[in-house]
């Protein structure tokens, strides 16, 4: 929204800012005179996720950086899907864009060459020197996803892993999930210490780190904890965190 305001009028159809973005608004109307409707399907910081394709009366654009390939998508509902590859597709340094042919070439004002999708379409995505290693890693990863059973299998695994960890968060009196249950992300599972155990937050982080948990600290803007369960993360890693939480519970 911040960046779009530099190019035209922006309408925010709904927000859960008053609740620190812990839920996805449901009751809103998309203006039918808007040029497009933009959504981000998964919120990595606050741990909420849109798990179904929305219906929009205007062209829909989606940032799917953090949950692409974790569930089947009806691509026909979108005029453009884009994202950074660094979550479920490839190492950082490459991006993906799925854009309808009739969506490009419609803008009358000048677009810098590097930012014009038509430039990349015309040049087979090699207008500039391509980041070969991330692109090759994306190829290998796509082959791996296909060999595992495709996106449907990735979704099954994502649900299994998320259900395991959320069940422990809900059972364990020391921890509290931050997102509304119906909107909980399968990719980024956010939780905090229960109020009565708040002073043990640093202790648990140290405890978990010593037991091999990497990157469990929540985003710097919200604190707490965040378990990112992208496609590459095996179920055994989720179980290791659950075991860690249960061990910490017994100590306290």
Helix count, DSSP H or I runs of 4 or more residues: 5
Which CATH architecture of the largest domain? 3-Layer(aba) Sandwich
Helix and strand composition category: alpha/beta
Kindly provide the name of the CATH class of the largest domain: Alpha Beta
Count of individual domains: 2
Count the beta strands: 9
Subunit structure: Homodimer.
Family: Belongs to the class-V pyridoxal-phosphate-dependent aminotransferase family. SerC subfamily.
GO biological process, one term: pyridoxine biosynthetic process
GO molecular function: O-phospho-L-serine:2-oxoglutarate aminotransferase activity; pyridoxal phosphate binding
Explained architecture:
- This protein is of the alpha/beta class and 252 residues long.
- Strands 1-4-5-6 form a 4-stranded mixed β-sheet, with no helix packed on it. The chain has a 3-stranded antiparallel β-sheet with strand order 7-8-9, covered by helices on one side. Strands 2-3 form a two-stranded antiparallel sheet.
- The model has no long low-confidence stretch (mean pLDDT 95).
- It has 5 helices and 9 strands; from the N terminus they run ββββββαααββαβα.
- It is globular, with a radius of gyration of 20 Å.
- The protein is 28% helix and 14% strand.
- This is Phosphoserine aminotransferase.
- Its cofactor is pyridoxal 5'-phosphate.
- The modification N6-(pyridoxal phosphate)lysine is found at residue 87.
- Keywords: Amino-acid biosynthesis, Aminotransferase, Cytoplasm, Pyridoxal phosphate, Pyridoxine biosynthesis, Serine biosynthesis, Transferase.
């Amino acid at each position: 929204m911040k960046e779009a305001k530099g190019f035209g009028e922006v309408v925010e159809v709904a927000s859960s800012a008053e609740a620190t973005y812990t839920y996805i608004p449901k009751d809103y109307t998309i203006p039918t005179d808007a040029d497009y409707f933009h959504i981000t399907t998964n919120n990595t910081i606050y741990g909420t996720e849109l798990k179904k394709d929305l219906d929009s009366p205007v062209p829909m654009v989606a940032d799917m950086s953090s949950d692409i390939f974790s569930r089947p998508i009806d691509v026909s509902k979108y005029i453009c899907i884009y994202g950074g590859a660094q979550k479920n597709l490839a190492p950082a340094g490459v991006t993906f864009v799925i854009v309808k042919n009739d969506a490009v070439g419609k803008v009358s004002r000048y677009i810098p060459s590097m930012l014009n999708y038509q430039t990349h379409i015309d040049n087979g995505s090699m207008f500039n020197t391509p980041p070969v290693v991330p692109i090759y890693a994306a190829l290998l990863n796509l082959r791996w996803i296909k060999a595992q059973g495709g996106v449907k299998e990735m979704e099954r695994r994502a649900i299994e892993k998320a259900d395991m960890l959320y069940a422990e968060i809900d059972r364990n009196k020391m921890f509290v999930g931050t997102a509304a249950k119906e909107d909980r992300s399968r990719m980024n599972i956010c939780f905090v210490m229960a109020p009565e155990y708040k002073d043990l937050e640093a202790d648990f982080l140290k405890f978990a780190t010593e037991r091999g948990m990497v990157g469990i600290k929540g985003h710097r803007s919200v604190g707490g904890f965040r378990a990112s369960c992208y496609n590459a993360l095996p179920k055994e890693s989720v179980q290791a965190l659950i075991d860690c939480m249960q061990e910490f519970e017994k100590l306290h």
